[in-house]
Task: structure prediction
Amino acid sequence: MDRNVALLLIFACTILGPALVIAATGYSSIGALGRNPSAAPKILTAMTITLVFAEAVSIVAFLVVWQLFAASGQ
Result:
């Protein structure tokens, strides 16, 4: 039972970590657009790359934890 609780806590971190990155990216990019609207293409490119990497890390972490959770059930 202790392993399942640990895996659930790790699973929660794999969800919260990228969610915080996505929130910080959105907040910062909107602030940057407010200060300098003419830099929108550069800001959009950087924001998109950051969001893609955060989502990719989230998916990989989710799959790793899912495999660990499935292996603990055997």
About this structure: Residues 2-72 form a domain with the F1FO ATP Synthase fold (CATH 1.20.20.10).
